[in-house]
Amino acid sequence: MIAFLSDIVAGTECGSSSDSLSCLRAADVDTLQTLNYNISLAVYYGTYIFVPVVDGTFIVERPTVTITSGHLNGEVLLAVTNSHEGNDFVDQSLTMEISDFVSTLFPDVQPWQAALATPLYQGLGTNVEQANYAMGESIFICPTYYLLKTFGSKGWKGEFAIPPALHGNDLSYYFTSDGPPYDNSEFITAFSNGFMATAMTMNPNDKYNSSDITPAWSTWVSGHTEMMFNETEAGAPNVYTYTTDDALLERCLYWLSLSAYTAQ
User: Fold this and answer.
1) Is pLDDT of 196 > 60?
2) I need a labelling partner for 77 at 20 to 30 A (CA). Which of 12, 46, 143, 222 fits?
3) What's the confidence (pLDDT) of residue 3?
């Protein structure tokens, strides 16, 4: 971050100013926009440079520390992740081994720590497929389980799997004005009603629509139960409960053990 700040100061010719911050605030907007664009492009594929940091004052500790200590700003949690959260954030021409990908994605992770990812991911397809899983799980999916564990009997978990089930693909099923790709009224009702019920009564099981086909939804701590939202090969809605894969939870324990090195 210090290096990028130096680039901004130099790019705005504020390096010689006695008050570089005031100089930056008065800098030409177009110049700042160009610098922002160039810096954003320079970071590793699928990552972002301008993110929250733990400064010890405004953000006093890492999120996983807060979560695992039970300090939660909420009454209940309904969390739905997509099957392929990481794909859009990985260069699909990638060929590097999973340990190298982990080291590149998280530079503070030591080589021996990154090497521990190999036995966890090597059975999950090609190198780029392993990277897809690692990206999605480290950033989106595993932190969800950290939250679910802490919320206990007040947490429910679901998975959105309508192909291709990429990050953000679920949005058109909450906000349907543009027409979702899988335009099935039964599915849309089932998928959206759990959120509405939770907002209204703090429980996704409190159905207010008689056409909701979602079965009874147990909390995640009750046997690691999740709700799958998918479609059959014939195009029928397929909504059912299943148990979280133990191998996924093992990988999440790995990411949790690295949280001090991944800014989580």
Assistant:
1) yes
2) 46
3) 65
